[in-house]
Amino acid sequence: MPKPAIDPKDFTCVLYEVREHVATITLNRPERRNALNPRAYAEIEAAFRAAAEDGEARCVVVTGADPAFCSGEDVKEMMTGEAGPRPVRVRYEPTPAAMAAIECDKPVIAAVNGSAVGWGMELALYADIRIASENARFAELFVKRGLVCDVGGFWRLPALVGPAKAAELLFTGDVIDAREAERIGLVSETIPHAELMPRAMALAGRIAANPPLALRYLKEGLNRYAYGDPREVGSWAIEVIHRLFQTEDHREGVRSFLEKRAPVFHGR
């Protein structure tokens, strides 16, 4: 796995620490509900690569600074030009942050403390285990912006909840609460908010107490035989997203969100 491009000590959007063999990655833009800008994406990638390279880390917990887990892309910043124009992709490759999370060879637990929508839900899907606070909410909101999901929605969501339920979530963009997420198998358990991080860290500690090499091969086996190779679907998804960025429906989805009104789509 490539080494992190940004040193964790230089992070501004993510907190990273390792204690007692557990690496904790915390999205830390609470004033924006941990919405993602280009810097945040880059730091998430670097954090997972740092965890993979860190010999002291045997398990990873990813969470968000309250009140949200991750509210997806920072639409206002990324779509209104404050973050600069989107780069033109010459090669359609999977999202680097997504692949860093998927390729991290240590068990990953998502402690979902609040809204996990859009790419925030994708990030939760990249974890091996998801535990939800009773405050958590989940949604694949991409269709509302005239887009498709990243690799997680195509690669792991159908395996977790079944193809029909995955189709419902992807096609509608509906928001579901933590109890519904538990009922359909998206999360392992739903617990009171104050108990979330203690429960996640206790589980991570039990996992980290086991032999690191065995854990690595157990994770590889699950990814290989339960989910398959994410790179092909990831590359396809990015190519489709690039095409959809050029559509009027995407622009209308963004405008309607910023203007706080119902969108009117025309299929072009």
What does this structure look like?
This protein has 268 residues and is α/β, with parallel strands linked by helices. It has one domain (8-193, 212-259): 2-enoyl-CoA Hydratase, Chain A, domain 1. It contains twelve helices and nine strands. It has helices at 38-53, 75-79, 96-103, 119-126, 151-155, 157-161, 163-172, 178-183, 196-208, 212-227, 230-245, 248-259, and strands at residues 14-19, 22-27, 59-64, 108-112, 115-117, 129-133, 137-139, 176-177, 189-191. It has a six-stranded mixed β-sheet with strand order 1-2-3-4-6-9, sandwiched between helices. Helix 1 (38-53) links the parallel strand 2 and strand 3 (59-64). Helix 1 (38-53) runs parallel beside helix 3 (96-103). The termini are far apart. 44% of the residues are buried. The model has no long low-confidence stretch (mean pLDDT 92).
Q: Would you count the extended β strands for me?
A: 9
CATH class: Alpha Beta
Taken as a percent bin, the fraction of beta residues is: 5-15%
Based on secondary structure, the structural category is alpha/beta
Radius of gyration: 18 Å
Helical run tally? 12
Q: In this structure, how is the largest beta sheet organized? A: 6 strands, mixed
Helix content: 40-55%
Could you state the oligomeric state of the chains shown? Answer: single chain
What is the mean predicted local confidence, pLDDT? 92
Uncertain segments are none
CATH superfamily, called what?
2-enoyl-CoA Hydratase, Chain A, domain 1
Strand order of the largest sheet: 1-2-3-4-6-9
> Termini distance?
40 Å
